[in-house]
Amino acid sequence: MSSRDASVHRIACLQTAPLFGERERNLDDLERRIEGVEADLLVLPELFGTGYSFRDRAEALSYSEPAASGPTGERLCRWSERTGGLVVGGFPEVDGDRLFNTCVAAVGGVVRGLYRKVHLFGFEDEIYDPGDTPFPVVEHRGLRVGLMICFDWAFPEAARCLTLAGADVLAHPSNLVLPFCRQAMPIRALENGVFAVTANRVGTEHRPPRPELPFTGHSQILSPLGEVLAEGSGNTPDLLTATIDAARARDKSLRSGNDRIAERRPDLYGPLLFSEAGR
Ligand code: ACM
What we know:
Elements: E1 8-15, H1 23-33, E2 41-43, H2 57-62, H3 71-83, E3 86-95, E4 98-107, E5 110-116, E6 137-140, E7 143-147, H4 156-164, E8 169-173, H5 181-192, E9 195-199, E10 204-205, E11 213-214, E12 220-222, E13 228-231, E14 238-245, H6 247-250, H7 270-274
Parallel strand pairs: 1-2, 2-3, 7-8, 8-9
Antiparallel strand pairs: 1-14, 3-4, 4-5, 6-7, 9-12, 10-11, 12-13
Helix pairs in contact: 1-3
The structure holds acetamide.
The site of acetamide (ACM) has 7 residues, from loops.
């Protein structure tokens, strides 16, 4: 048992530059880059083994794997033993005849949590089924880690659901192409009083009929006040680290004395649940 404070945790985030379709090579490269990393939480990007721009569902299916027993899931399990903590990362997941853009959380060599992307971005709805899982929180060594994927940043409800489920930190595997997430995630962290780790990628994919997609890098580790604790570059792979105190995410008060969570008025938030947006 370590003597460090039980609420203090080491966080790592890997920004990658995968080559489309070169799964073994991408996984081997990543394995080299995390050699020696010890972390209570390591976050990797969305679809980090395969790349992003599948031409169609059949191509994505050819790279898909079951949640826990495929080549990527097995590596995540192995890396969780090596880093000594929770490892979160994404891949195309097949379940019967359904295909999801999924991330899993592995710890101690086994998959402990799974999240299937709910808000599909652009052409993703031609490839994947929309997620059917609630936003999950996985606990390890007293750190409660909420799972969301990339475009979920644009839906504040995702981060809020994870906060209400007890998350101290949002683990956010991403393949970002819009520039806005970098501005939005500090707000998600601030409004919820949680840490956030966005693991993004760099490089460009152009696989017609898909448009050319330059990925934006600038992965981030954020504090519960939206401060940037670590940030990646815009065009190279990077390893980001930070030490965080989960107690900061359990105190939702602001200097004014207000509490961002306790003072909510859900009795007046009915439209969040029942309205047809903007109609
Ligand atoms: C995205 O959701 N991968 C942009």
